[in-house]
Amino acid sequence: MQKIDQRTYRTKRKIESAMLQLCHDNVTFAKLTGPQVAQAAHVSRQTFYRYYLTPEQVIVTILDRHLDEFLSAFRFQDLTAQGMVIQLLQAWQKRTDAFEMIEWSNTRQLFIQRLANFNHQIALRNNKALIDETTICNVYAAATYMFLRDYVLEHKWTPEQATKLLLHLTNGLSDLF
What's the CA gap between 131 and 83, in Å, rounded? Predict the structure, then answer.
């Protein structure tokens, strides 16, 4: 197991926190630069660029970390489609900040691509051979994103309602489970 340098960890968390604060301050993401993020994080421009090439990469890194955590957690259990949806809803409900940053930065497509890869990993784990893997994983990812977004940010449904509706519209995620 690789030991994580605590200074690196703290610096990355400062940068991520600064991004969240910039989001909450309604700074225009399209005009945001690495040096501006560095200044908000109280780190040097060089330090920012040591870890990230762009502000968008900060958000992508956060999303990848969350999805990796979910995939690792799912590996240790016998998961059903309903169980996975319930766990995703619960996990993302605690990560409202991530969805706020996705919307703020307009990185929905990047997140959907990562969700599609996540779906692919779930299908592989369940030994599912998909006829049109890319399309199936992308459709499920887009549907999952929209449900997660509405559930986490808009609070449109109860967890039970959201689970039932997503499973209904995706045919019970039958191509992944």
Answer: 24
What is the C-alpha separation between 112 and 80, in angstroms, rounded?
Answer: 21
Summarize pLDDT for 69-101 with one digit per residue, the tens: 888 877 656 778 888 888 888 888 888 999 999
Separation CA 136–CA 140 (nearest Å):
6
What are the CA-CA distances from residue 6 to residues 49, 68, 77 (Å)? 18, 20, 31
pTM: 0.83
Question: How far is Cα 175 from Cα 157, in angstroms, rounded to an integer?
Answer: 25
How far is residue 104 CA from its own chain's centroid?
Answer: 14
SS (HEC) of the chain: CCCCCHHHHHHHHHHHHHHHHHHHCCCCHHHCCHHHHHHHHCCCHHHHHHHCCCHHHHHHHHHHHHHHHHHHHHHCCCCCHHHHHHHHHHHHHCCHHHHHHHHHHCCHHHHHHHHHHHHHHHHHHCCCCCCCHHHHHHHHHHHHHHHHHHHHHHCCCCHHHHHHHHHHHCHHHCCCC
Question: Residue type for 70, please?
Answer: F
Q: Which two tokens stand for residue 9?
A: 């960890």
Tokens of 58: 């900060």
